[in-house]
Amino acid sequence: MSDIVIDRPVSAATVQAELNYLEFTGEKPVSYQYEPPPGVPKRSGVYRPRRVTISNARVAPPPGALSLDRNGFELHRHASALNDFSDPAKIESVYYREAEQLLKQATGARRVVVFDHTLRDGNPERSSGVREPVKYIHNDQTFVSGPRRVRDHLPADEAERLLQGRVAIVNLWRPIGETVQSSPLALCDSRSITLNDLVASDLVYPDKVGETYALVFNPRHRWYYFPHMSPDEFLLLKIYDSAGDGIARLTAHTAFDDPTSPADAPPRRSIELRSLLFF
């Protein structure tokens, strides 16, 4: 079983930190996920750090009941059966199956399709294939690319049938190895984001082009984080939802430099797993 939790030992109710917002110039930002052609920047777009208040969700959660469908994120406790995340085969055979059950249980989805995962490590000498934490505010899909993900991962007839109903994309994010002491995730309450705050951006891979959202600054944004997350906890992040009627459709998020982190804090290690949910 997994339970929503907010009761870890905590520090201050809020921190002041800088988050990197997009300064929209009228051009669509592009981010290459591989070494781009000569003379092409790996990331375009102008990002500007903005100092914001980030509330400790363990002490001062958003008003009302904190939930994935209300705020776009929620925290659970459930220790994984997998301790060693260095073997991709074990991640797919053990962790994917485990995550499918956790996602069904937490969301009520009747079907879950895990389609990929990313390992991250703040150590600059990280292993090959492991990425660094992302310190630009983003959401992993757009309202255009969300449905496209269904078509990418399911047979055409089945995808079109499922897209007639409610479809969501949810990330399951978990620390690896030890408690997070550096580069935690900041999460923007979905209710504080307007459509005008979102800017579609291209994510370029060798074989395809994906689309994500960057976020432009709005003083009404409300930011939260869960300090000291341990490997027996996981976050659910809403990335896309076809539902309307007041249900959170996404949540912008970013890693950030926590001013309360010890100077000798170990690099953050984590795994994020992406899934399609059908209701």
Task: Outline the structure in words.
One of its GO terms (biological process) is methylation. InterPro entries: AsaB-like. Keywords: Methyltransferase, Transferase. This is Methyltransferase. GO terms for molecular function: methyltransferase activity; oxidoreductase activity. The protein is α+β, with helices and mostly antiparallel strands. It has one domain (6-278): Jelly Rolls. 14% of the residues lie in helices and 34% in strands. It is built from four helices and 15 strands. A six-stranded antiparallel beta sheet has the order 1-5-13-8-15-6, sandwiched between helices. Strands 2-4-12-9-14 form a five-stranded mixed beta sheet, with no helix packed on it. Strands 3-10-11-7 form a four-stranded mixed beta sheet, with no helix packed on it. A hairpin with a 4-residue loop joins strand 10 and strand 11. The longest helix is centred in the middle third of the chain and has 20 residues, at 88-107. It is globular. The relative contact order is 0.26. The mean pLDDT is 94.
